[in-house]
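Hey team,

Sharing the 30S ribosomal protein S11 run so nobody has to redo it. Sequence (189 residues) first:
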Amino acid sequence: MNLSNTLFNNLTNRLKLEALLLQEEKLYVENLLNQVAYLKKLKTNDYKNLGLQKFATYTNKEKNLQDFIVVYIVNISFLKANTALHVSDIQGNLKLFFSSGSVDLAGKQKKKRRIAVSKLISLLFKKASFLGKNPVALHLNNVNFYKNLIIRKLKRSLYIKVIKIFNQTPYNGCRKKKLRRKKYTKKFK
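Structure output:
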């Protein structure tokens, strides 16, 4: 009798779990369909009749389509002699720009990446209150060893949806030019 009870409990638990997973998948598919409808409406350039409330799904928790769309792009670039941080919206309009000179670093100090990045990120949090909990795409240019540091610091107060890493400098650099041998000539007296 005890064995049949445990088997029955296991089966009911599995069925409950599968029902829960199916319900989550249904919600996910509904949200995707709503997002497709929203994007089709956006493609037809009918901005006046575009309201997110029409395309939002309503369940136990009211979910909004804004959860799926990236609103801002944060771009961190390591240049040869500088470090730059850009914040722009999706259309490419520049909202904020900071370089390591804007945090009082000059000369060879600008190449010290750890100091420059930490100061730039703290300045970003002070100035860019509009980022809030909006979904953000993070683009990293030539950030080889510091990507984990940057992502960890930005995750604390930003909702990062997408991370793209662009490394344009090769790891070992270009091949060196072949050295020409010097020709030795005998000197006659």
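Confidence is low (pLDDT under 50) at residues 52-62.

Ping me if you want the raw files.
A.
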